[in-house]
Amino acid sequence: MTTTRERLRAQTLEEIKAAAKARLAVDGANLSLRAVARDVGLVSSAVYRYFPSRDALLTALIIDSYNEMGAAVEAAEAAQPRDDLHARFMAVAHGIRDWALSAPSEYALIYGSPVPGYEAPQDTIAPAARVITVLAGLLTDGLRDGTLHDPGDAISKPLAKDLAEFTSQPPFVGVPPALMARGVAAWSGVHGLVSFELFGAYGPLGDPRALFEHQVLAIARTLGLEPAPGQTRRPRKRST
After folding, report:
1. Percent residues over pLDDT 70 in the chain
2. How does the average pLDDT of the chain come out, rounded?
3. Cα dist from 57 to 118, 165, 226, whole Å
């Protein structure tokens, strides 16, 4: 059982992080602990008892953001039939986009420009890998059931060496290098589309979701994933 003091500390931690997230929308990753403390109604020295530095606070926000996006993508993908890899991939792509549009400042924190002077600690690796792990499951499931195959693309020796590091350990064990390369391209392609839309790189666009859908369908085809006949619309959402 937690004590009153522990509950109050946990509550204050969440209040500080909420204030910092609000600051992200205004100041970007250029957070000021003094400004965050003022927003929460604390003296700046009190905030340092919870987060000893700006980088510690940034790390907490980054971990939360990766976990929130990971949870959203996992839920979207889990709502699809296990044997429909195309629907699962589309759900992952839309899950990333939907979360990014709902939390643009947090998305910019983890996929925007690097924060000068900040080096992410090991604590961020597992949360950052959640979406990648879902995509890895698509590749390995597809290879297992025969939906996906080694595309046989020519791979240079330096690239093959780099890809071997991915495919020598979970969750990518057994994925052929050429398919792994396409998987990396698919992952970066989806994030590129989301980033272009979120950061205004397209300029005026009447229906950005339609463009996203069209491009993600093309990305899915590079992996060898085609929709079932007549099924080109957005995958279903989990029922509530």
Report:
1. 95
2. 92
3. 11, 31, 43
Contacts 24+ apart (CB under 8 A), 154-163: 155/181
Residues 114, 214, single domain; the answer is: yes
Helices 4-27 + 33-40 axis angle, to 10: 120
Same domain, 69 and 161: yes
Q: Which of 210, 233, 74 is nearest to 138 (CA)?
A: 74
3-state secondary structure 131-163: HHHHHHHHHHHHHHHCCCCCCCCCCCHHHHHHH
Predicted TM-score (pTM) of the model is 0.91
Q: What is the pLDDT of residue 5?
A: 86
Q: Please, which pLDDT band fits residue 238 given cuts at 50, 70 and 90?
A: very low
Long-range contacts of 50-56 (CB under 8 A, 24+ apart): 50/9, 50/12, 50/13, 50/16, 51/16, 55/118, 55/119
The confidence band for 204, taking pLDDT boundaries of 50, 70 and 90, is confident
Asked whether residue 122 is assigned to any structural domain, the reply reads yes
Cis amide linkage into residue 171, ω under 30° from 0: yes
